[in-house]
Amino acid sequence: MNYQKYPTAISPLFVTIAALFVCFLMISNIIVNRLFTFAGLIFPGDFFLFPLTYIFGDILTEVYGFKRSRLVIWLGFLANIIMAIYFSFILSLPKPSELTNSDAFNQVLGSTPRIVIASLIAYFFGEFTNSAVISMLKKRTVGKYLWMRTIGSTLVGQVVDTGLFSLIAFTYLPFPALIQIMVLSYIYKVGYEILATPLTYAIVAKVKQIEKVDTFDYGISYNPVALDIEYKKGSKDQ
């Protein structure tokens, strides 16, 4: 089946995938500070959910291209900034005397701004690295070997993301525990990506079939702060 090599109008399916991406990212930022133990090891609360954001990021870049993926990443940043500001504002207001569980709200939501700051810094570098790597590899492989692109981009992106996030978000932990979380999180997220490869293949194939598009980022700028989302047909690779 022949697909367009450049996306056109933003579709309902693209909006749905983008909304799920932002949803998972926000939930992860709220719950990440709830650590849990398993087999004597410490894990962050976003352990099961956050890797899905990378899979969604891979799908967005693979199908719709780096420009559209960049737009969704910025939307996720904006949503998390708004969430952090609003949480801080509400928690700073006087509470009614009848509210007896205020400390619970402060404990759960009060750390969210720090977590969001850590997430924004880590995700800015990590997700843009992931998206750029998968886009560049797609051009190098002429669209072949999707597994190489998804796993390879995760190997690079998660080094940046996990390292920066852990160093900022978990500064209060003893150094051995911090290193343990970093190493385990990295191994788990990369392993998650590898195990999810068949599912990623299936979703990518289905989305491409529905959208009739398979974007190649020829002639684009990988500037993360650019806001251009349109593709010019006939562009040559830079």
From TrEMBL:
Keywords: Cell membrane, Membrane, Transmembrane, Transmembrane helix, Transport. InterPro entries: YhhQ. The chain crosses the membrane at residues 12-32, 38-60, 72-93, 113-134, 155-175, 181-204. It is found in: Cell membrane. GO terms for molecular function: transmembrane transporter activity. GO terms for cellular component: plasma membrane. Its main location: membrane. The keyword Transmembrane helix applies. It comes from the Bacteria. It is a multi-pass membrane protein. Pfam families: Vut_1. The keyword Endoplasmic reticulum does not apply. Belongs to the vitamin uptake transporter (VUT/ECF) (TC 2.A.88) family. Q precursor transporter subfamily. PANTHER family: QUEUOSINE PRECURSOR TRANSPORTER-RELATED. Involved in the import of queuosine (Q) precursors, required for Q precursor salvage. This is Probable queuosine precursor transporter.
